[in-house]
Design brief:
mainly beta; 9 strands
Length: 158
């Protein structure tokens, strides 16, 4: 293999705040800070690195009508390794439409990448699907090319 890596979180924490500004309008803020260690081999060379990462997120959502929700979010992510700090910041926009009681359809823009999704929710089950075209294209695209990201989530509550 060309690369074999193992990453583990050392320590960290997350703090969040959510407020309803008025009926149908929510404001959320999150701060996330964690350290992680990465070990392994890259092209036969041993890797043993430590990273510190911070995430700042602020978002606002508004219920346009009983079926349509709009959201905007600013996210700033940074990572430091060996005294070198790098990161990315950008805007995220999204819309969600309630097609029926349990079915939601979504579309969004994620810092240069378009996304589509759908989800179903009832009392016991949740199924969520998302597609993102070229997520992080500006940071990893030059090295690895384009990407199509698919996410599937299945949750059961009891």
């Amino acid at each position: 293999s060309l690369m074999e890596l193992d990453a583990s979180v050392d320590k960290g924490g997350r703090l969040g705040f959510l407020a309803e500004l008025k009926e149908g309008c929510m404001l959320g803020v999150i701060y996330d800070r964690y350290d992680e260690d990465v070990t392994g081999r890259l092209l036969g060379t041993p890797i043993d690195e430590s990273f510190s990462s911070e995430v700042y997120i602020a978002g606002l959502s508004y219920q346009l009508d009983r079926r349509c929700l709009a959201a905007v979010e600013w996210q700033d992510v940074s990572t430091e390794r060996g005294g070198i700090k790098y990161g990315d910041a950008g805007m995220r926009l999204g819309m969600e439409f309630a097609a029926s009681d349990g079915l939601r359809v979504r579309s969004g823009y994620n810092d240069g990448a378009w996304s589509l999704g759908a989800g179903y929710l009832d009392e016991a089950w949740s199924v969520q699907y998302a597609y993102v075209n070229d997520l992080n294209a500006d940071s990893v695209g030059p090295f690895f090319g384009g990407s199509d990201t698919h996410q599937l989530e299945l949750t059961h509550r009891w």
